Amino acid sequence: MERKMRKKKKIEAFDVFLVLFLTLLMFVVLIPFYFTVIQSFMTQQEYIMNSVTWIPKEPTLKNYQDIFVATDMMRGFFNSVIYTVFGVLFSMFITTSLAYGLSRKNFPGRKLIQNMVVFTMYFGGGLIPFFLLVKQLNMINTRWAIIIPIALSVYNMIILRTFFEQLPPDLDEAAMLDGANPLRIFWQIDLPLVKPALATIVLFYAVGRWNEWFYASLFLTKARLWPMQLELRQILWSSAALVDNIPAELGRPSFSEGIKAAAVMVTMLPIMMVYPFLQKYFVKGVMIGAIKS
Fold this sequence. Notes:
Structural class: mainly alpha
Shape: globular
Number of strands: 0
CATH superfamily: MetI-like
Number of domains: 1
């Protein structure tokens, strides 16, 4: 009885430590985010007087207005939506098809294909051969350069393949006896059963696509094709140019630091608004994967 009480006290002490540690990490993440939000609503005069404040005395939306006046954020937003929507759809098509095929033990050449796919996780030709390949495929300065070459994540494919392998084979056998073909079994039986895993991988792909800027900077030299994150990088680099782009007829000074903070918020909000709709499936998918592994 005493041993159980001691063990219980140790667990409670560890729980307290864990809560305090995670709370500290939460503040480390939230405080810079909070001050970025505050700065996006500050005026230049208030920022000069006190750059660090918890609540702005005269909050304003002019910084957000200046984003769409002095920058091409709307164009970048439209491009990012295209890259995210079509990129996620294409990535999910490839990932689910490959994962389902490799999860079938009777699939011809299953081990060879699986080993070749996993090999690419550890070894690659490098950035220059990758760029030359995209160039030879005539995808430079096209939207396909951001959608096709980086469509497959082997890590996500392995996660989804593991979920497919956990499904009872009796379901497929019963469906085949009822006359269902492999495509119908895949679409109407197996896919709905791995919905939590699909939602989790969709979230992974969506965040990656929305935050994509590196390959866009390599493959896209035309500004009209730039995603939102690449436009944000240009904004963070060119504070003087932002001030010059504000029309004089607005009759007020522009605040470059406030515009930068507002631009950061504009790029973050859309993907943050998507997460609550997938949170239920995301948590369930992670928990199931943890239990089964």
